[in-house]
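Second opinion, please. Please look over this fold, written as tokens:

===
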Amino acid sequence: MEIDKKTIRALSSETRIKIMKSLGKRRKMPSELSRELKLATSTITKHIDKLEEARLVKKSPRGKKFIYYDLSERGRAMIKPKFPVQFVLMLGLGILLMVVSIPNLFISKSLNLMASAGAPRAEMAETIGTAQTVAPATDPVYIVVLIVSLILIVVGIYKVIKWKLR
């Protein structure tokens, strides 16, 4: 979806965003929105006109007397995106933490085993490619990071499944 200047101007008002959120629940008349937001009907109508101009809201006339407003597809995509960004961030962060923690956990373990077997420092340095070794005290840190990453991934997958089923 492309965002133009009219859309940005329409979304720049907190009142218009409240109107869109309210219309996201169900279609409403300006008088209903007026009571809900505690604003004059004329003020609501002016805000709706701006939203309509940006193609975020559409009119749904019912007979001669009643005019309902509803979110357009474009407006609905703004209020309720097809795939929430927080799920992607949660899963991505979980995978990133896992990718960082697993190799470090195994490097640390292998160095500890080599050190306990009496391997010379030079051989241990060749194993990891540097002259320094990883301290055994880092093991609990990587385990905690691994656990946090698994929790993020599981919660992220659960939320995606729950979101898909709604």
Notes: Residues 114 and 123 are 9 Å apart (CA to CA). Helices lie at 5-11, 14-25, 30-37, 41-53, 73-79, 85-116, 121-128, 139-165. Residues 5-78 form a domain with the Arc Repressor Mutant, subunit A fold (CATH 1.10.10.10).
